[in-house]
Amino acid sequence: MTTILPNVPVSPLRQKLIDDMTMRHFSAATQRNYIRDVGRFASFLRRSPDTATTEDVRQFQLAQSEAGVPVPTMNSVVSALRFFFTNTLDRPDLARKLVRVSRPRNLPVVLSRDEVARLLNATTSLKHQAALSVAYGAGLRVGEVAMLKARDIDSERMLIRVERGKGGQYRNAMLSPDLLTLLRQWWQVGHRQGVLHRDGWLFPGQHALKPISTRQLYRVVVEAAQAAEITRRVGPHTLRHSFATHLLEDGVDIRIIQALLGHAKLENTALYTKVATRTVRAVTSPLDRPTQSIWAPASASPPCSTPGVRP
What segment(s) does the record annotate as region Disordered (predicted)? Predict the structure, then answer.
């Protein structure tokens, strides 16, 4: 898939970058971002980026830092340039000079189970309720929800096939009986309306041949949260955070949660241990289990037998 508009002249170097990304099945959004970020580096150089030196790379990152470029943006540029230097230019020496900037991770916003129920019930259509229920009930990313097709629901094995996950990774997500019942209700309504087909999108957009947009799903969550009188700032990913946290609180092994979420690193899943409040409350403090309670009054000391010495 190419991200370049037709009839627009493309340099051989940019076309090689596009070919390298297409060969690896990068999504259209990732291709756009990588082309933009490599272009940002070329604009800094004011010459072709294949002529860059290690000092150019260092000066570019220094200029970004001094200009106050946000850390997530700087790290996104690093990812794009590492791919460009390593795969397109075959210059790993330049890639090694790129530095990722560390930043503290904010704790995710997690809704209570009651808040999740209120939010789902506050949606204005069965399609929106079903889509958000998939995000929470299976822990899917918003892009994964949008790209689901009807055939991805495997009712026999009680699985949801995620074929368009982050990084193009395939995985199976859980399908609960209640979620399956809701999806079957949506199938009956959508099929009757003529917008759902066996080989079509599970959640079509305004045009039945196109999937619902992630932006639309974000608006649905925000509007439902307002209707449910949830004052915290929430989005589709909040439902995924809540899914993982609630499973952890229910005692599900963290490595199973890692697999369900499609996390490559366990440390990303471990973040939810910091917001699993039920898990924290279930732990008995050592203060409550001493050999002898520290709050018990001390027993009287035995009388001292040494004359003239008071206990």
Answer: 292-311
Residue of 166, 171, 191, 197 with catalytic role: 166
Catalytic residue among 14, 118, 197, 263: 263
Would you say residue 131 lies in a domain?
yes
Q: Give pTM, 2 decimals.
A: 0.68
Instruction: Enumerate the β-bridge partners of residue 201.
Output: 149
246 is catalytic: no
Residues 152 and 261 in one domain: yes
Strands (E), 58-178: 153-154, 159-162, 171-174
Active-site residue flag, 141: yes
Known active-site residue 272 = yes
CATH number for the domain harbouring residue 62: 1.10.150.130
Annotated catalytic residue within 16, 82, 197, 237? 237
Question: Where are any strands of DSSP class E within the chain?
Answer: 153-154, 159-162, 171-174
In a shared domain, residues 150 and 267: yes
CA gap 217, 140 in Å, rounded: 13
Which is catalytic among the residues 127, 128, 240, 246? 240
| pLDDT per residue of the chain (311 residues) written in tens, 0 to 9 | 444 444 557 789 999 999 999 998 888 888 999 999 999 999 999 999 999 999 999 999 999 999 999 998 999 999 999 999 999 999 999 999 999 988 777 788 899 999 999 999 999 999 999 999 999 999 999 999 999 999 999 999 999 999 865 656 778 999 999 999 999 999 999 999 989 988 899 999 988 789 999 999 999 999 999 999 999 999 999 999 999 899 888 888 888 888 888 887 777 777 777 767 666 566 666 666 665 555 555 555 555 554 444 43
d(CA 270, CA 122) in angstroms, rounded, equals: 31
Indicate which residue of 141, 164, 241, 246 is catalytic. Answer: 141
Tell me: do 45 and 128 sit in the same domain: no
- 237 counts as catalytic: yes
Q: Is residue 42 part of a domain?
A: yes
| CA neighbor of 151 nearest in space, from 206, 209, 201 | 201
